[in-house]
Amino acid sequence: MTDEFIVIGAGALGLASAEALLLQGATVTVLERGAVGRESSWAGGGILSPLCPWDYPDVVTRLTTRGAALFGAWAESLYQATGIDPEYQVSGMLVLPPFDMEAAERWCVAHGMQAIREGSGLLLPDVAQARNPRLLQSQRARVEQLGGRIVEHCTVQEIDAGQGRVSRLRTDCGEFSAQRYLVTAGAWSAQVAGKWAGQAGIKPIRGQMLLFKFATPPLRHILLQDGLYLIPRKDGHLLVGSTLEDVGFDKLTTASAREMLLQRAITLLPALRDQPLVQQWAGLRPGSPDNIPRIGRHPELKNLYINSGHFRYGVTMAPASVEVLLDEINGKEPSFDSSPYQWRA
What we know:
alpha/beta; eight-stranded mixed sheet; FAD/NAD(P)-binding domain; globular
């Protein structure tokens, strides 16, 4: 491949896409409206699974399952190439009531996911996690190592297109042109696409998180109960998340969310009552109908692509989404039906 690509957005999906294109021999420039990897990918907890996979349609879980299967080798390759450890670890996830135990077990059997009853909960021992900020640091280093150009603090203002093709991008830091263009701008993807957004259906959904620090990990597994999760890191940090708030492009944190998350977390882990809060932050997920992302070519513009709208699971789906994207770019038959992810007019 000798193509020139401009990738718009430098989150986990944008950087993963850029890495894959560079490995195929493309020339890649990445434009990022802020700092690299500091939006929803950075803010997320890094659970490499849907919270309750049995609650999602197969069109979502086929991407999360494939992404999770590829993730360990991908994380190791990033670590070996850059020396930055994404801290991939298989920690397991214990799902606590309320949920339909029998339905969950049936789904796990049907989909080949190991599940073990543990008290009143269901342990999914193969669920893994990554530490998002370190993953993104290693991704950036890898893209730059491969010769990719990254331009930060560069906001795309308009996609200039006609006669079925994009000709250039107008930005607040000048004009950019290439043979092909890829939108990976997360919650801002529809804004970037502008009048060409079609049925992308992507909008921001705020999520707030809390961070605590213990001397040693206070939990053996990720804990999940009714949308609340506690994620133990190797160094004793513990993440508590998260909210789902349809408030537009507002990234402010709130006292009400902090109190709600804290009180629910204390119920699951009483030791939190004595731990000071290290940090609270918010990120804007790229919300999409039914959590179904948009991956592939624009319906009208032959040299414009998208890899966005992954809602809560962009990091998990990243390796699989890149496979789908490259199949589309290279005209290769996909390994599974990718039509549900198409960008429609």
